[in-house]
Amino acid sequence: MSGGSTLPRRALGRRLRALRVAAQKSKLAAAVAIEISKSGLGRLEDGEPVRICTAQFHQLLELYGADEAAAAEIMGLVQEVRATKGDPTTGWWRAYSDVVNPHFDHFMGLEQACSRMTTFQLTLLPGLLQTAAYRRWIVGITDPQMSAADVDRRLELIARRQRRIVEDQDFSLEVLLSESAVRHQVGGRVVMREQARHLVSVGNLPNVSIRVIPIDAGAHPGLVVQSFTLFEFPVQQQVRLTEPPVVFVEGFTGALFLEDVAVVERHKSTMADLRQVALSEGDTRLLVEGIAEEYAP
């Protein structure tokens, strides 16, 4: 069982780990029982692709003493993972792995699997809202040695990511921006005028909410919290499970994917506080339209 969608694989791994712990079996014992490495079992429980057959899943379930309901749940998830294998809409972004950061594959798996994405950004606009010119300037600053052909592939990738906003009405995007993220002259006045107009246009979509936290909002958590993104997931239909949310925090040289319940709840609480000081969607639209006019020749 290799490949497959991020979401059912995460759910499968999480449930297998719970069954193993309940049965008081070590990773090594479980791995030996199905003749794979201990690290392979760890990857399976972490929701990563591992080559494992149906018989091996049944051996695990027998080792763990799983009852009929638990076994049915596990095998339902296995079927769901396999159903997505070979689906051309699954993992399409891996074709761009040579021009992005190492953590990008996991990020894209979460972005494509989530039903709701909420992000707070301090200095730059999130990728799903960037124009090609805005993105091109960022690539030029972060990877100045990148070839023109690879830059074009980066722009192609972000355009494909953005299609989901329009094509998938079950996906919702909420963006909270520091006003500085809208006012930084990324790429110059012409680029920012186009970018501001694009923000207004995307913000009119029914599944998108864009709100700015004004500079004069006073003290709020956004002044001390790093930019972050919260991924929330839909119910897995076959097994009626909902995967826990994940928080993504990116730094200059790496990234963190946070799943600890207390940490995720703290970020949710911070997001709620930020909503309290953000402008309404209508007032945000007026502000961004005014900024676009400021950049007019």
Record the SSE blueprint:
Layout: H1 6-22, H2 27-33, H3 38-45, H4 54-64, H5 68-84, H6 104-113, E1 116-121, H7 132-142, H8 148-167, E2 172-178, H9 179-183, H10 189-203, E3 208-213, E4 228-232, E5 235-236, E6 241-242, E7 246-250, E8 255-258, H11 261-277, H12 281-294
Parallel strand pairs: 1-2, 2-3
Antiparallel strand pairs: 1-4, 4-7, 5-6, 7-8
> Structural class of the secondary elements?
alpha/beta
Order of SSEs, N→C? HHHHHHEHHEHHEEEEEEHH
What's the total count of β strands? 8
What is the spatial order of strands in the main beta sheet? 3-2-1-4-7-8
CA-atom Rg in angstroms: 22 Å
Number of domains: 2
Main beta-sheet strand count, sense and barrel state: 6 strands, mixed
The pLDDT mean sits at 87
Q: How many separate helices? A: 12
Characterization of the model:
- 51% of the residues lie in helices and 12% in strands.
- It is elongated, with a radius of gyration of 22 Å.
- Strands 3-2-1-4-7-8 form a 6-stranded mixed sheet, sandwiched between helices. A two-stranded antiparallel ribbon has the order 5-6.
- It is of the alpha/beta class and 297 residues long.
Keywords:
434 Repressor (Amino-terminal Domain), 297 residues, alpha/beta, 8 strands, 2 domains, 12 helices, elongated, Endonuclease, Chain A
Brief account:
InterPro entries: DUF5753. The protein is of the alpha/beta class and 297 residues long. It has two domains: 79 residues, lambda repressor-like DNA-binding domains (434 Repressor (Amino-terminal Domain), Orthogonal Bundle); 203 residues, Endonuclease, Chain A.
